[in-house]
Amino acid sequence: PPAALGVSRSILQRHGNMSSPTVLFILNEFRQQRCANSNTQRQHCILLGFGPGLVAEIALLSIE
Length: 64
Fold this sequence. Notes:
Peroxisomal Thiolase, Chain A, domain 1; 2 helices; single chain
């Protein structure tokens, strides 16, 4: 769903495309939002990062 990309879009809007560090900014923002909401349940997230040339980073995260 489009709402699932809210954190990513927010970071890109505020900071632009920072290449590889963008992933860490998104993870930090997501973590801060999760900590602020103590009623959140366990979730699974797919983290994708693409770099110059043919570089891709993919991770499946389980967040509690």
